[in-house]
């Protein structure tokens, strides 16, 4: 049996009825901090994410991270025997995380009433595109739809009039991942309310996380600005509408270097570094409001200066001047970064199928009880015997019969 001890959430058991990204990301965070996560997948191919991304030795490299610290079992939820097994697992779990479309679990026999009959104080975390109620609850959605409706896809674009290309994606499934983070946060809040020594009430609760709402909650002042002023915040490409200079500037060797010198003292340092110490006192650049109003000209001047220097030299000079700056990291840069390595945010993990793999570390960091990457994403059904036999007490004959009947 894998080591399921260690970490601040050791002793907590989470049942995952999740697929794709949002719910599995939530449970990965909980598993990293020590929770015993039991992931239910369909027999055969398993979670569709197992087929996503670049392949290594014929398998998804992403799965090594996405499925880590989880005990993976297979069950065909359309079969009555599988439903019985799931409800028995519910009885052994503190919480359930799911990201089916609203109502789908009910149709499979897992209504809230059925789940609470199996475990009255169960915490249920539901993640969906639009939420569990409302006029749009039944619409199909993935993370990209949540990002668009939540307002993020509009804001990640280049400035109006600069390109006819589609609005730029962030490059990762951020809508799903943010929803997963909120689900993990909400689940722990519900467990606290249930189990806290002085304040707990012993009750199970359900939480409702929507992809669209998770993204909308991130948009800083965009909504109050519209409500109070009628202004619609527009995309600004690499810059920030409310602070300047903050942008990415091309170096002589073709790399993008981000420079955030958007306070008066920082801008003075940058101007001095550029050999233009008086620039900070020029009328068009004196104070942040003036710099924002003249940001195109300012960025052009900074870009002309950065184009004279290699990226490494720019980083060295800007660091010596204590100006926030860096080249735009690639995955290779992240893997080599000494700070990430020092803090365990880039780790080599032995994957039983793929061999040595690089994994991101555990966030948040709790130095006194940090959790661990106990194992990488396992094969489909790797823990069937362990969970069905060890946890639920089914005999070898019963498990064999389930396999024969296509239940697992």
A few lines on this structure:
It holds the Pfam family CoA_transf_3. With 408 residues, this protein is α/β, with parallel strands linked by helices.
Structure description:
This protein is α/β, with parallel strands linked by helices and 408 residues long. The protein has two domains: 273 residues, Crotonobetainyl-coa:carnitine coa-transferase, domain 1 (Rossmann fold, 3-Layer(aba) Sandwich); 77 residues, formyl-coa transferase, domain 3. Helix content is 38%, strand content 15%. The chain contains 18 helices and 13 strands. It has a six-stranded parallel sheet. Strands 9-10-11 form a three-stranded antiparallel sheet, covered by helices on one side. Strands 3-4 form a two-stranded antiparallel ribbon. A hairpin with a 5-residue loop joins strand 9 and strand 10. Helix 1 packs across helix 8. The protein starts with 12 loop residues before the first strand and ends with a helix. 34% of the residues are buried. Keywords: Transferase. Pfam families: CoA_transf_3.
Chart the SSEs and their pairings.
Elements: E1 13-17, H1 22-32, E2 36-41, E3 55-56, E4 59-60, H2 61-66, E5 70-74, H3 80-91, E6 95-98, H4 104-107, H5 112-118, E7 123-128, H6 143-149, H7 152-155, H8 174-195, E8 206-210, H9 211-216, H10 222-229, E9 246-250, E10 256-260, H11 264-273, H12 288-293, H13 295-306, H14 311-320, E11 325-327, H15 331-336, H16 338-342, E12 346-351, E13 355-360, H17 384-391, H18 396-404
Parallel strand pairs: 1-2, 1-6, 2-5, 6-7, 7-8
Antiparallel strand pairs: 3-4, 9-10, 10-11, 12-13
Helix pairs in contact: 1-8, 6-8
């Amino acid at each position: 049996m894998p080591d399921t001890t260690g970490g601040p959430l050791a002793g907590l058991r989470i049942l995952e009825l999740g697929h794709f990204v949002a719910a599995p990301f939530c449970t990965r965070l909980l598993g990293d901090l020590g929770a015993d996560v039991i992931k239910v997948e369909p027999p055969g191919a398993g979670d569709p994410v197992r087929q996503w991304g670049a392949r290594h030795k014929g398998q998804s490299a992403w799965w090594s991270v996405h499925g880590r610290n989880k005990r993976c079992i297979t069950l065909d939820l359309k079969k009555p025997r599988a439903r019985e097994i799931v409800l028995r697992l519910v009885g052994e779990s503190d919480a359930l995380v799911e990201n089916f479309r609203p109502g789908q679990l009910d149709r499979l026999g897992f209504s809230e009433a059925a789940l609470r009959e199996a475990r009255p104080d169960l915490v249920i975390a539901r993640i969906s595109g639009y939420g569990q109620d409302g006029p749009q609850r039944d619409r199909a959605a993935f993370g990209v739809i949540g990002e668009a409706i939540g307002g993020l896809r509009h804001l990640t674009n280049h400035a109006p009039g600069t390109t006819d290309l589609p609005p730029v994606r962030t490059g990762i499934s951020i809508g799903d991942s943010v929803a997963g983070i909120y689900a993990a946060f909400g689940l722990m809040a519900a467990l606290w309310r249930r189990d806290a020594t002085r304040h707990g009430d012993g009750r199970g609760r359900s939480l409702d996380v929507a992809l669209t709402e998770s993204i909308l909650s991130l948009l800083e002042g965009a909504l109050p600005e519209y409500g109070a002023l009628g202004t619609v915040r527009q995309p600004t490409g690499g810059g920030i509408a409310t602070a300047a200079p903050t942008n990415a500037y091309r170096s002589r060797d073709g790399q993008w270097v981000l420079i955030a010198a958007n306070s008066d003292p920082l801008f003075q340092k940058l101007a001095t570094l550029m050999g233009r110490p008086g620039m900070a006192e020029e009328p068009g650049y004196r104070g942040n409001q003036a710099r924002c109003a003249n940001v195109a000209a300012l960025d052009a001047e900074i870009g002309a200066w950065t184009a004279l220097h290699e990226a490494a030299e720019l980083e060295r000079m800007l660091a010596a001047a204590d100006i926030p700056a860096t080249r735009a990291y690639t995955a290779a840069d992240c893997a080599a970064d000494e700070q990430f390595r020092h803090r365990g945010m880039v780790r080599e993990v032995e994957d039983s199928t793929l061999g040595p793999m690089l994994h991101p570390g555990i966030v948040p960091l709790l130095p006194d009880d940090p959790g661990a990457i106990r194992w990488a994403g396992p094969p489909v059904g790797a823990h069937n015997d362990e969970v069905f036999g060890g946890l639920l007490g089914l005999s070898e004959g019963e498990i064999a019969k389930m396999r024969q009947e296509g239940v697992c």
